[in-house]
Amino acid sequence: MSSTKKYSKYLIGIVTVLAISILCTFLFSGPTNSINDVVLNIIYGIIIGLSIAIGCQLLSNYFFSSNEWQKQPVKGFTKVIIVITSFIIINVTLINILWFGITQDIPFAKVLNLRFVRSTIVIEFIIALTIYLITLAKHFSVHLNKYYIKLAATESQLVRHQYETLKSQVNPHFLFNTLNTLSGLIYKDVDKADQFIHHFSQIYRYVLDVQHEEVVPITQELDFIDHYLFLSNIRFNNAIQAKIQLTNTKQFIVPMALQLVFENVLKHNQFNIETPMQITLSEEDGFLKITNPIRPKEQKENSSKLGIKNLQGRYSLLTDKEIQIEKSETHFIVYLPILKNI
Length: 342
Prior knowledge:
Layout: H1 3-29, H2 35-63, H3 68-71, H4 73-103, H5 108-111, H6 115-185, H7 190-210, E1 216-217, H8 218-235, E2 240-245, E3 252-253, H9 257-268, E4 277-284, E5 287-293, H10 306-316, E6 324-327, E7 331-337
Parallel strand pairs: 2-4
Antiparallel strand pairs: 1-3, 4-5, 5-7, 6-7
């Protein structure tokens, strides 16, 4: 808000308070034909109105000058109400004691003994506090709304940053493994290497396409898995068999989630052309279910389990559903939550 607009808004507020204060003064004092009484009523209204308006404004500015109140809004709201209430009652009491003591030549100690003075103080207190509460409620709601909008935007940016950070840890790992396989193949079988490069190019295109996506259609992920399995079967001499049993593929999943699970299956189990690795992909209660027989390698590879932790982290930023893992004596099962588009 520009300084001119801010000044105009402040001036309008002061004029409004003075107008209400002077009007109330004439209403409570009753009709009068004396110019002197009219002037006194106006002066009295200005003194009461200005003192309350300026005092409340200064106290409000002090309490709302920092953003600490936004962290505990109820506590901040309560605190400022208590202080303002105390200020108003003290302010109107002192002004009335001085005003009636001076203008009506009443000893200051006896002013509060007069019933009309006490009534005046109570009425002015109620009116002033009501006006302030209305103004404060508007101020409070506007600034709190701005705070929560800013907080939501910050959290959204943080979540997106966390998601991109997590996702960036997966893609290089996968590409490194793929290039490793290609480097071992290119001098052994040129035709297979050519096929490998073709499918690898499709995979790399997919990686580039989804690098800024939080979710992808399951159909798109399945196409990616076809290319991945083709490369893996070249590497393992067609010792991998995948059985896809999905009826509804129009939903969504985290990019490269299936590839990571499939890669873990191949990494931790032994298999060959005589006893191929059979991986079954099905759907169960809102999850993609990936099942494989357990055939642990005699010499286990070192694993930091970063892949699954990473995948769990990516899912946690998108849904309350968690990845589930089950292990029996014969089979290993991973459940990946199926997502809606976001």
